[in-house]
Design a protein that fits this description.
With 176 residues, the chain is of the alpha+beta class. It is 26% helix and 36% strand. A 4-stranded mixed beta sheet has the order 6-3-8-7, sandwiched between helices. The chain has a 3-stranded antiparallel beta sheet with strand order 5-4-9.
Length: 176
């Protein structure tokens, strides 16, 4: 089954639906999301993308990310994909969104309006090996330092989020 994305303008108004690879080939702006899961020690769960991924294989990134489906809210999509990739669910809160464009060596381009969500979870994930090679917990300061020292080890969108929105993530207060 081919995956589709929701094409949007920069205000997140829906413009249509397109097959995911075609949207990435044409570098068309589409809706996406990135989930950041923290534990009670304020460590971020990072995932290493599976080696079979069509772009950014084996790079480290946020806990999970993907694209919303037609009729699915941002939070519904985040919860669904968190379960599909990492094998657990938790409450998520949408914190902010931003637009980025990142071309890849394989001719595809990510051009996304990315909705960033944050949640809390303290157990170990049950990763889907078709999606995730490995995972680890790191503090935001450790991540920031490692990105500075080893930028080639991280996905483009993750580095952009960290560069532009570090304070929004670091200062987020979880709802009780």
């Amino acid at each position: 089954m081919k995956e589709h994305v929701i094409l949007v303008d920069e205000l997140d108004n829906e413009l249509g639906i397109m097959e995911k690879i075609e949207a990435h080939e044409k570098a068309l702006l589409h809706r996406a999301f990135s989930v950041f899961i923290f534990n009670d020690n304020d460590e971020l769960m990072l995932q290493q993308r599976a080696k079979c991924k069509y772009h950014s294989p084996l790079l480290w990134t946020n806990t999970c990310c993907s694209h919303q489906r037609k009729g699915e809210s941002n939070l519904e999509a985040g919860v669904r994909r968190l379960h599909e990739e990492m094998g657990f669910t938790c409450d998520l809160e949408e914190v902010f969104s931003f637009v980025y464009k990142a071309p890849f060596d394989n001719g595809l381009t990510e051009h996304e309006l990315d909705h960033v969500m944050i949640g809390r979870y303290n157990d170990e994930p049950k990763v889907n090996k078709e999606e995730v090679e490995s995972y680890k917990w790191m503090t935001l300061e450790q991540v920031k330092l490692d990105i500075a020292n080893n930028p080639a080890n991280y996905t483009a969108w993750f580095k952009i989020i960290f560069d532009k929105s570090y304070d929004k993530i670091a200062n987020f207060n979880f709802s009780k």
